[in-house]
Q: What sequence folds into this?
């Protein structure tokens, strides 16, 4: 997962361009702040802090806007989260996290490239609070847990490990949702959202 954070000012618009850079459509988002926008298949996923004109409150909102400008779905959260991050998983395994006045968009598109020193047979597997991962060469491995708003919780494991499949029990850690990051030789980061129970 790659984490990106944007801030786009009030009365923002999403510009939809074709492969040649020609403007196809402008989707106006003047009802609130549009903080992140991502193109997915035939829709834009827009995460914003929606501002109410009737009150001075802002509400975390995620919506899917079709290429024709229509809203496919919209989810608005109450502002009574007491400052705790609010996470909205999307159907393609992307994740939007609202944290105080920032929005983070975790995209599941960053995987393992051929030149990196760590690879997975498929993805990081987590079953019964156990993490499985595969190394393609002897590597210095660092495994860390992060909160959904990107703050480090703890380093779970560090050290040199041989080629092959490895596993790590996650028992004894605090329950809840988090991001687990596996890093090999300072590169080849793999991340996955997990729920520890």
A:
């Amino acid at each position: 997962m790659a984490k990106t954070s944007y801030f786009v000012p009030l009365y923002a618009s999403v510009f939809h361009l074709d492969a040649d850079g020609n403007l196809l459509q402008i989707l106006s988002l003047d009802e609130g702040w549009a903080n992140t926008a991502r193109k997915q298949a035939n829709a834009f996923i827009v995460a914003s802090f929606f501002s109410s004109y009737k009150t001075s409150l802002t509400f975390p909102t995620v919506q899917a806007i079709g290429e024709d400008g229509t809203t496919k779905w919209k989810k608005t959260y109450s502002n009574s989260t007491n400052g705790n991050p609010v996470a909205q998983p999307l159907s393609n395994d992307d994740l939007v996290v609202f944290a105080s006045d920032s929005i983070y968009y975790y995209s599941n598109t960053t995987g393992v490239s051929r030149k990196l020193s760590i690879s997975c047979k498929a993805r990081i597997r987590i079953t019964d609070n156990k993490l499985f991962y595969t190394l393609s060469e002897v590597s210095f491995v660092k495994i860390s847990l992060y909160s959904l708003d990107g703050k480090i919780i703890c380093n779970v494991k560090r050290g040199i490990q041989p080629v092959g499949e490895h596993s790590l029990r996650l028992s004894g850690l605090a329950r809840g949702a988090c991001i687990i990051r596996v890093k090999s030789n300072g590169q080849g980061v793999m991340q996955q959202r997990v729920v520890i129970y």
